[in-house]
Amino acid sequence: MGKKDKDNFETLKVSKIRKAASEVYINLEQKHNVHALLDFDITETRKRIKLHFEKTGEKLSFLAFIINCVGKAVSDNKRVHALRKSRRKLVIFNEVDIATIVERKIEGESWPILYVIRSADKKPLIEIHKEIRNAQVSKDVTDDFHKLVEVYLKVPRPLRLLYRKRIQNTPKVLRSYAGSVLVTSVGITALNGGWGIPYVGHPLVITIGGIEKKAKVIKDKIEIRECLNVTVTVDHDNLDGAPAARFAAEIKELIEKGYGLESLLKK
Fold first, then answer.
1. How far apart, in whole angstroms, are the C-alpha atoms of residue 195 and residue 207?
2. Is residue 138 in some structural domain?
3. 179-226, pLDDT tens digit by residue?
4. How far is CA 150 from the centre of its chain?
5. What global pTM score does this model have?
6. Which residue from 124, 154, 204, 205 has the fewest beta carbons nearer than 10 Å?
C-alpha cells in the first residue's frame, strides 16, 4: 500500500514486475524500428466468429485468430522474424514462436505475463485458442512466471544487465525465453479506434489497436465497415521496406479473409 502525504499526494512502492519490466527496455534505443499504422476490414471476419459462437457456444479468442494469421504470414516471409547474431549474421528460424501478453493476478496485482506459443505456424486456430485460454487460468503459468521474476530480482543488478545483454546477443536463448515475434494488444474493447506504438525488442511486433467503424469503398460503393487498427513494427537493421511491405500485405489479406475460420465452420 502507498503512503498518503499531507500535501495531497500518495507515494507508491514500485512492484516487482515493474522493476523487472523496466530493465527489458534498456538498450532498446539502439534499435531502428519502423512502424506501419494500418487498418484491416474485419466486418466479414467478425461475422464468422459470431457464427462459430452461435453454432458451438464457444467464444473464440480474437487474439488466437490474429496469432494464427501472423504465424502463417511469418512462415511465408521468414526474414521478418530474423534475430541478429553479432553484426554480420542473422539467424532465421524455420518454426515461428509467437509471444503474447496474458494478464494475471499475482499478489493482488495485475501482472503482464509473457507467454510463448511454440510453432504457432504449424498449429490450427482452435489449438492456439485452447492454449491461450489455458494460459489465462492455469496456476502453473503464474507460479512459473512469479518464480522467474523472484529469482531474477535476487541477482545483483549489474549481473542482471550483463546476463540480459548476453541473452539479447544469443538468438537461440532469446527465442527460448521470448519467441521471435510478439503479438500484443492495447485493449480492443476499451479503446474505440487508435493505434499503439510499441517499445520492444522483438524483430517483428504486431500491436492490435482499437476497432472502429470507417467508410470503405466496396465494389465502387461507400459502405461503413468495422476496421481493426494494427501497427506492424519491424527491425530495419534486419529488413528492407519491400519484404516488410509484402508481409504486411499478406497479413492484411489473411485477417480480412478470416484465415482458419472456414475449417472451423465446416465442422
1. 8
2. yes
3. 999 999 876 555 577 898 888 789 999 999 989 999 999 889 999 999
4. 24
5. 0.90
6. 154
